[in-house]
Design brief:
Blueprint lengths: L3 H13 L2 H16 L15 H7 L6 H17 L4 H6 L2 H11 L3 H17 L1 H6 L2 H7 L6 H14 L8 H5 L2 H7 L5 H16 L5 H7 L2 H11 L11 H14 L1 H9 L2 H14 L18 H5 L5 H14 L7 H4 L36 H14 L13 H13 L1 H9 L1 H10 L3 H17 L2 H7 L5 H10 L3 H17 L1 H10 L2 H10 L19 H18 L8 H14 L6 H15 L7 H6 L2 H10 L6 H15 L9 H16 L20 H5 L3 E7 L8 E6 L5 H20 L11 E3 L6 E2 L6 E2 L6 E4 L4 E3 L1 H9 L22 H5 L15 H5 L4 E6 L2 E2 L6 H8 L26 E8 L22 E2 L7 H11 L3 H6 L5 H18 L1 H7 L17 H11 L2 H5 L8 H7 L6 H12 L1 H15 L13 E6 L4 H12 L5 E6 L7 H17 L29 H20 L10 H8 L3 E2 L3 H4 L1 H24 L3 H10 L1 E2 L2 E2 L8 E2 L2 E5 L14 H15 L2 H12 ...
Parallel strand pairs: 1-10, 11-14, 12-13, 19-20, 20-22
Antiparallel strand pairs: 1-2, 3-6, 4-5, 6-7, 8-9, 8-10, 15-16, 17-18, 21-22
Helix pairs in contact: 1-2, 2-4, 3-4, 4-7, 6-7, 6-9, 7-10, 10-13, 13-16, 15-16, 16-17, 16-20, 18-20, 18-25, 20-26, 25-26, 26-29, 28-29, 28-31, 29-30, 29-32, 31-32, 33-34, 33-36, 34-37, 36-47, 38-47, 45-47, 49-52, 52-53, 56-62, 57-63, 59-61
Amino acid sequence: IWNSSKVAAIVSSLETGNEGDIMMALTELCELLSISTEETLIGFRTDTVTPHLVRCMQMEENQEIMLLACRALFHLMEALPCSIPSVVAAGGVAVFVEKLLSIQIIDLAEQALLCLEKVSLESPISVLKEGGMGAMLMFLDFFSISLQRKVVASIANMAKRVTDAHFSFVEDCIPQLSQLLVYEDPTLVEGTATIFYRLLLNSQGNETRIAKICTETVVDNLLAILRRDREWVTTSTWPIVIKTLIILVRQSTPMAYMVMSHGVVGCLLALLKMQAECSGLGIEASPAPSPGVMSPATKAGKGMSAETVGEAVELLEALLPVITEGLLSEVKVESANDGLGREESSGSVLSLRTRGPSGLMIEKDDGGEEEEEEEEEEEDSVQPLQRPSRAVDDAQNKERIAMFTSNAEFMTEMANGLPDLIDVYSNTVHRYSKHRSISAIAAVLHFAPASLLRDSLASLPISSFIAHIIHSGELLTVTTGVHIAQVLISKLPDIFSTYFVREGVVMEINALANNDSAGRLPPPKMDTKDPPLPNHMQKVRDAAKRFLEEYFSKEQGVLQSLEELQKIAAKLDTWKTRKPSDYASILQELTDLLSSAEGVSTYEFVKSGVVPALRSFLTAKDSESCDTRLARACTFLKSFAVQKGDNPPYLTTLMKKLVASLHQTERLPIYITEHGDNASAGWSSSLKLLAQPFKLMLISENPKSEKSATTVMIEPLATIGAVEDFIQCKLAYKEEEEEEQMFPPHPHPLTQASHRPSGWRCNQCSAGFRGPGTVRWRCFACDYDLCEACAQEAEEGKKKPEKEKKRKSGSLWPLRRDKKKETKKEDSASSPATVDEGSEEKHDEKADISISLNGTILSPSLSIFKAIHMYSDWREKLGPNSSSEMIHTTKAMWDKVYQLKYKFSKPSRSEPELDSSDSTSKPEVVRLNKSKEGQCAGCSNYLSACEYELSVVKEYGDVMDDVTVDVLYVMNALHTLNQNAADIMKYLKDTTPLALAADTDLRSNKLTNKVLRQVLDGLLLCTGHPNNSWCRPLLVDCPFLFSFNTRMTFFELASFGPSRSMLRLQEILEKQGEECKYKLGRVHKQKIKLARDAIMDSAVKVMDVYGSQKAFLEFEYFDEVGTGLGPTMEFYTLVSRALQADNVGMWLRQDEDSTGFGLFPRPMAKDDPKRDEILKMSKFIGQFLARALYDTRVVDLPLASPLLKILRGCPLCYGDLKAIAPTLGATVATFLTLAEERDMITEAKGRTPETEKMIESTLLFKGVPIADLSLDFTLSGYPSIEMVPGGAKTEVTVWNMDQYAELTCEWFLKKGIEDQVLAMGNGANQVFPFTQLRYFSVAELDLMLCGSGEPLTVQSLEAATVCDHGYTVNSKAVQMLFSVLSKFNTTECRQFVAFVTGAPRLPVGGLKALKPNLTIVRKTASDSDTVLPSVMTCQNYLKLPDYSSEAILEAKLRQAMTEGADAFHLS
């Protein structure tokens, strides 16, 4: 575009002074600069042009020239940032400011503003010195919102480097900046908060400047953001505001007092309470807001990020004085990672050392680019807060102490906030947040008076907390724990002299003093990375000894409550030798002790041995019958499922005590990456690395080819299959050419030519050359250039051996891609819409590619990241101190080039082992409980739970102590007993009323946070670690420990592969208020067009071809214009209806009395004529259901609960037959009962002819002898299936009726359906491992598959509906619509939901979970009463005319729902 003559011509025209020439030159210059880039402007001398452009901007007589000149300067600085210094040198900044202040021409002022924004990036001080900050703010309200945001961004750039010499320019703008904090644009508010943060960051140590920056108005406006007074502010602004206040508070005591007096403590504690309500990680669902009102937590994200929590606690700590006396002043902990031979209580935390604070910068060919990119990124982001030590001078600390102790309201607020600080410590795994919270707790307890602590600690389990942190083993927390114990025993000896013994504090301190773990709570079984400091350790142990000598020098006897618990445990251990009537009195003693005024401490409960005694009592399988075990369960229920007054049931008390015991004893390790342990980096920091490509060197191993290497860069989430595609497209041709004959001697002479200044390229090898040192051989006859090497080969005419088989020149190497392997490829691109029937025959003749890393052949489905993580040698850089048990995931993985070797081979290559996340595991065979108690589903469930061996114990018992194992088994038994109590009591014919516990009483916040902390670590997630750790078996064995949302999050993140996991992870992080700058996990959409009249045939083919693809499936229909979410949802609805029609005959026939019990496979014999068709359809159903879960769709397929139990992996029992065939199930139960009576009679009287006759005449079925029922041993309803050889000729009598009943149950529930269930499982496993569904109960699984049947009420509609374009929630037509919908029956509600969304059922969460929300807009028409409502199903968008009456609205809505349900057309 540019050359020297053109630049000279433009400069000459600008110098002439002729306005016409200047206009032409500026117009041409603007056009050229607008399409120029930094590469095209190489050599462009900006210093020859910028002075003239600046002069043109001062030509007041011609406004158009000024505008063109300003526009040219903007395009120049945008295309060539290095031109900014020349613009500054030419006086351009002063001119921009002048035009901005004059604002005579709004277009010119806006262009000048854009120019100043560009200058502020490179030279912010020059803008500041010329008064640019004030000029930008003067007429801010006249500009559009986008320009206002640029103003704030420009000022934020200036705020980075403000010095004392330039502060006067900032001081005058403080009031205007303060007003920006109350604007309603969240971006403006966040940018303004960033300005104040940077100004304070540059003013640390200068109290005068800080006082001028942060006036009381500024502080009040900042705190209004934390008070959530302005609901439009996003949670991403909170950490910036908190960091700003931290600097302010640390500056001086008066500043801290000002912040404190504005109510900062209440704001921060409210945020921490909100975080606790959001389950610590912001994932749990929150209640729906009131109509028309959106709460800040809902609008800005449900909960805070880990960064915000850590900063909030740090601000609270900064307000408090520093402890300068006692143990904490004697022991200076230099490192947060120092330990006493153990890891912290939350488990082992992996924290790897890395090279830089902001993530890895990808290596470039130009060495200078890396530093520039890193510096630029640091400048564009908010600078990290410098964290000075808490040590302050004595004078300032004395002022802080006086401020704290003299302000009763401040002390009370901090004391009342102790529970929130303890929750932060207990529910986070970030070490920094833990240390800050425990430091704040220690300061409050140290400086608060005894009278205040007596009231504040009355209901707080502080003693248990102290024992917990002393036991943690980390030097900082142990030291703090001992210090807190000293403070509390000295202030409140009458209280804590007892509680310290009861809660195990004395025991922990005694073990610490003696360096002995005997008698303590079970220590964590972890390796230690960081050795303790001997002098610090000795000081702590000396302090522990002094503590014991001063306060607990006397020998401590066994506490009365502990002694009583031990006696009860001893009695329970002897249950085998006691009568069942004795159980009730023993259990009553336990309930009385647990509910007494003094209660039982967690330490006493764990230490007493009650937990293993309860496990033996509830779950032990003795030689007696199952009835005895059920009788013990019944006795337990009648003792614990009792509620007195307003107190919770005893069972609830016991469950909560078990949860507390689990929290105190479990030491399950936490594996997180270095980014996961960095609270200040935020949750999304680990995603930054995944946005950086790996560098791979592809080396050919073909024996006939030269050992050439090709270096490529590829995304970490790409697959090995993508590398195969690259080799096929780019390298196979090169391999072929190397085997072909090299080019013959050149026919014309070659002449050595001079080099070209602009460079040249060899026409043979395509190598590029530049510079005078290169040799260029030129054929002038052919206009042909060759490099030195190619010229020599051309002269010699070298040839390689002829191949036996030549292919057409230029063709690619024929590669075979296995069909199954292709469909499992991650992030596969769109596949063709039709299936090539002859493709397999062609593939047999083609070669294959095998790719290996360090000798291991890699599967095409394996991601690049996981392949490198599993099979490369990058760990060698971590050094010998890295534990082999840890899951190392660090930036060291990106520090080297990985060599992947590939070769072409014949199709006989065996398939490599598939990635575990995609592997198809054979489903378990259907299990059936054949015991007598199996007639009762609840009894069977309870007995199975008692006999079940927890897989988490089998696999991870080495990191679990005996108490933790016992607690888990007791919790599992109690959960199952609580769920099935009604069935058990009914089976035992006991009518005692029970007060059962709630499902949430066994929830564990601690384990929830541990699980989510690991699964929300993006790097760790991509390694597959969550599925290969204790998290998976614990979720399967003990789902009651976690909420449904937590298990759903783990399921979505750990089951669907890296790409889907990254998409879901980013959604979660965005809901938490974290900005995800790096978008990962691109998943394509596969659009498929179907025919409505052949929906089943199309669906079967679609699932066969596309079912296992990773792309989102979207459907549309021939001759219809509809596309997107609506037609896709309707596809699942239409297929569900077709499956219910059962044209194949695969479902169990429904009798009149079994209607509504759901679909269940019919029993099928091996020689069934429809066997192949049924198995094919069963496989399709598995694919269909799994695909619906995979794409988050809803199916309208009512599956029977026994089938859901099978899919979940639960055993069935005889009682489940009643759920699918009530009449037959009742008959079977009667036969089994009669058989028991028969056996009792024969056992008592013997089997004689008289007794036989008596039995045959008295044991009747509905008054009819069994022999007269004309039954044989063929399956009821299926006479072709003989249950025994010759079954059609074998009659059912009173002597074999139990065998008939058992065989009937076995055929209906196991033997006759096993093949169909296996086919379903195989089909589902092609999409994702179906065993992951074991995280959920049967009811939850039904909810996930079939959605919610939430009724449409006025309240739910108002809470979940968005009204727009002419309507509000209070509009007459909208209220009439809500009234009509609330009167609909279930069928009509389904029709409406299908009309609006495409599916008759709502997703999990009901109306408020629709994405996007249900939106109602006004449909305009000349006569609204004659127009039908219409919908956009892809957006859940209802266009509703403004009807005159409710009757007309209802009639038109019913007509639209009926007539518009079968097609998608334009409306």
